[in-house]
Amino acid sequence: MKKILNPYLNKEGYNCVCCAPNNPVGLHLEFWEEGEDVLTIWNPGENYQGWINTLHGGIISMLMDEVAGWVINRKLQTTGVTMQLNVKYKKPVMTTDSQITVRGHIASQRRNIVTIHLTLENSKGEVCDEGEAIYFTFGPDKAKEMGFDSCKVEGEAMG
């Protein structure tokens, strides 16, 4: 598993609620690459519950949407926007769990439309939620305009 370097760290105005490390109310997510998957590991905590000790469904959707974006960044070396996100809530995710893992990979691609399969697993490795994101990806010029240059992993040559 290789840590993905955040390509947005030195971008002016960068304050993503999911992945900006200095956002005071953010999730401070980091990402890893494992084969075809991109994943994040996160400790939910009680501040993110919808019902007592249960992770809010909107937070689950947000986590999946964010992982989908990082799949696009890393695997296709571009950026884009979410066109559609479908989540199947299969089992409650407990905020008392020590960690959850959200992972995604490209399921299909047709030109600039990419479908990403997503899962959320609890600390026991049980799949609690499944999702599918459909992404519209940008060409190189638009990606650069949006502040994206490249997305590397630790130890990968810059350039």
Automatic annotation (TrEMBL):
Gene3D superfamilies listed in its UniProt record: Hotdog Thioesterase
Q: Per the database record, which ranges form the Thioesterase domain?
A: 53-128
Q: InterPro entries this protein is in?
A: HotDog_dom_sf, PTE-AB_protein, Thioestr_dom
Task: Tell me which CDD domains the record gives.
Answer: PaaI_thioesterase
Q: Name one GO molecular function term.
A: thiolester hydrolase activity
One Pfam family assigned to this protein is: 4HBT
PANTHER family named among the record's database cross-references: THIOESTERASE FAMILY PROTEIN (AFU_ORTHOLOGUE AFUA_7G03960), UPF0644 PROTEIN PB2B4.06
* Stated name of the protein: PaaI family thioesterase
Could you tell me which species this protein originates from? Segatella copri
The taxonomic lineage of its organism, from the top, reads:
Bacteria, Pseudomonadati, Bacteroidota, Bacteroidia, Bacteroidales
